[in-house]
Design a protein that fits this description.
This is Ent-kaur-16-ene synthase. The protein is mostly helical and about 650 residues long. The protein is built from 29 helices and two strands. It has a two-stranded antiparallel sheet with strand order 1-2. The longest helix is centred in the middle third of the chain and has 31 residues, at about 320-350. It is elongated, with a radius of gyration of 32 Å. The relative contact order is 0.07.
């Protein structure tokens, strides 16, 4: 079922194929099996088309039925079926001019052309000559409208309705290039590690190029949406084609949404929701579990599309798929709730809730991983990520607010010596609580690496934590001494003090691949970590600038302004940093997708990219991690609120 996409049978297309004569015997059909299908698949009311069609789809049924009657008449077969078909057409002929009916693409050209064909075949359709003349006049007006972009491609698409008026020299191979398929193929291939060029999308780099295509003429929203999605998978600095494409497609989609044109027909409700979703959550912000939830809610069981005729997929628009997705989501969510309860008990057991200076962010910490590494088998990775995220938050607050210099140095010393007696060597209860939680957590996941990796990685995790504490102490000392580093000096330490190391490095041991000591210490791994940390630090600096300025702290925004000698405003500094974030994120994605010459397993690189997505979501509008309200809805949708849909 998953290996083959099945579309509903199309009587309209089958009828046109049935009319093709045999090359050897022009008096006989080339595809007699199509004739047989028409004879066997007439609906009881005399029509051909979808069974159980909605009341607003009669015009499509009239079109399909006339095509099938013409095919039977062409070969002089099926008198009974033809008569029943003609009776259906005449009984429902009023639908041809009914504006409340859904009108297939090109109907005002194709249907009159088929009436002419019926006359040529001496098919007796009891229509008034005034009705026929009115239809032909509408076709004449449609064919002679002022030339607009994409019209040539449109006329080629509906050429069966033009008949003898058709200029067969107008067709070109490019007319039939499906840009939706091209854009989707590019996106999927690139995301799956294939080194594909963006050159095939050059022809759609500008909006006027799109308008000159068939789908541009039809204002096909799904085609623009696919181009927009493809444009986000930019991994090279010189891919101006994708940048231009992203600019005009985002503008086009926003304009169509604001004008309400997407809502102009009964099939557009899902289209408009998908457009809103894509614009609000671009690829680098779109957390998988939140995306899954939205996709389940937007899933169209009917999955009907109207082009020249109606189509629906028999195994894509499937209520059982939706039910399976809902059950899977809710089952995983029930597991996530239990893991979060364990995390909350752990915080109490380790007395971390007694540290009054520290933010209690265990729910946000758990959400960040449940929204990305959600599969049941990744429980160890989730708990490693979540516990270490809780600890890095507490340690960050300790070095920022809660600890004296003696305590900060004491904690570093304890971690360096490692095998020490906690009570006697800790200079305060705060240090004892933090060191005890750190050591037990490091040992817990160090021991688990033996099961997953066949070796104990405790020393590597300890080293990662030490690097963080030392970078945080350097930052604290700089603040207390009121020294002003250069921007380069600031960033060289700030990416490490952003505290992603103790979250990322232990977690990668639990996502599947075996990791040798050489791999985890390879420069490629460190570069991935540095890139995601740089993105996170700069995002945090932008959203935290005003608060940190009031507290007398320096960050990349204030340093940009300081070293500009007063020539750069806050807005200009932020815009400059956004450019750096964009280029850093692009380089990170390039390395994540890179296959040739990479020794870091894709699953580990994906974890780092997921962390980047988490950071971009948290800092998209404000400092969502520090806020008590910004992420509440997202947390609820991933962790607490089951999906319920009407089947």
């Amino acid at each position: 079922m998953f290996d083959k996409i099945e579309l509903s049978f199309s009587p309209y297309d089958t009828a046109w194929v049935a009319m093709v004569p045999s090359l050897e015997l022009p008096q006989a059909p080339c595809f007699p099996q199509c004739i047989n299908w028409l004879l066997d698949n007439q609906v009881n009311d005399g029509s051909w088309g979808l069974h159980n069609r909605p009341s607003w789809l009669v015009k499509d049924a009239v079109l399909c039925t006339l095509a099938c009657v013409l095919a039977l008449k062409r070969w002089g077969i099926g008198e009974e079926q033809m008569n029943k078909g003609i009776q259906f057409i005449m009984s429902n002929f009023a639908s041809v001019t009914d504006e409340k009916q859904q009108t297939p693409i090109g109907f005002d050209i194709i249907f009159p052309g088929m009436i002419e064909c019926a006359q040529d075949l001496n098919l007796n359709l009891p229509l008034r000559s005034s009705d026929i003349n009115a239809m032909l006049e509408r076709r004449h007006l449609e064919l002679n409208r002022n030339y607009t972009a994409g019209r040539k491609e449109y006329l080629a698409y509906v050429s069966e309705g033009i008949g003898k008026l058709q200029d067969w020299e107008m067709g070109e191979e490019e007319i039939f290039l499906d840009l939706t398929t091209c854009a989707m193929a590019f996106r999927l291939l690139r995301l799956n590690g294939y080194d594909v060029s963006s050159d095939p999308l050059t022809q759609f780099a500008e909006d006027n190029q799109f308008c000159n295509s068939l789908k541009g003429y039809l204002k096909d929203i799904s085609a623009v949406l696919e181009l927009y999605r493809a444009s986000q998978i930019t991994i090279y600095p010189d891919e101006s084609v994708l940048e231009k494409q992203q600019f005009w497609t985002s503008h086009f989609l926003k304009q169509e949404l604001s004008s309400g044109s997407i809502h102009s027909n009964r099939f557009s409700e899902n289209d408009s929701s998908q457009v809103e979703d894509a614009l609000k959550f671009p690829y680098h912000v779109n957390l998988e579990r939140l995306a899954h939830r939205r996709n389940i809610n937007l899933y169209n069981v009917d999955n009907m599309r109207i082009l020249k005729t109606s189509y629906c997929s028999l195994n894509i628009g499937n209520e059982y798929f939706q039910k399976l997705a809902v059950d899977d989501f809710n089952i995983c969510q029930s597991m996530h709730i239990e893991e979060l309860k364990h995390l909350e008990r752990w915080v109490v057991e380790k007395r971390l809730d007694k540290l009054k200076f520290a933010r209690q962010k265990q729910t946000y910490c758990y959400f960040s991983v449940a929204a990305t590494l959600f599969s049941p088998e990744l429980s160890d990775a989730r708990m490693s990520w979540a516990k270490n995220a809780v600890l890095t938050t507490i340690v960050d607050d300790f070095y920022d607010l809660g600890g004296s210099e003696e305590e900060l140095l004491n904690l570093i010393d304890l971690l360096e010596r490692w095998d020490v007696e906690e009570g006697k060597n800790c200079c305060s209860e705060q240090v004892e609580i933090i060191f005890s939680a750190l050591r037990s957590t490091i040992c817990e996941f160090g021991d688990k690496t033996l099961t997953w990796q066949g070796r104990n990685a405790t020393s590597h995790i300890v080293e990662t934590w030490l690097n963080l504490l030392q970078s945080m102490f350097k930052e604290t000392k700089c603040l207390r001494n009121k020294s002003v580093p250069t921007l380069d000096e600031y960033m060289e330490n700030a990416y490490a003090s952003f505290a992603l190391g103790p979250i990322i490095f232990p977690a990668v041991y639990f996502v599947g691949p075996k990791l040798s000591e050489e791999v985890v210490r390879d420069p490629e791994f460190h570069n991935l970590y540095k890139l995601v940390s740089t993105c996170g630090r700069l995002l945090n600096d932008i959203q935290g600038f005003k608060r940190e300025s009031k507290e007398g702290k320096l960050n990349s925004v204030s340093l940009q302004m300081t070293y500009s000698d007063g020539n750069m405003t806050e807005v200009e500094a932020i815009e400059k940093i956004k450019v750096v974030i964009k280029s850093t994120r692009r380089e990170l994605l390039r390395l994540v997708l890179k296959e040739e010459g990479s020794i870091v397993p894709r699953a580990c690189k994906d974890l780092i990219w997921k962390m980047s997505k988490v950071l971009h979501l948290f800092y998209m509008n404000t400092d969502g991690f520090s806020s008590n309200v910004e992420m509440v809805k997202a947390v609820s949708e991933v962790v607490y609120e089951p999906i319920s849909v009407n089947m």
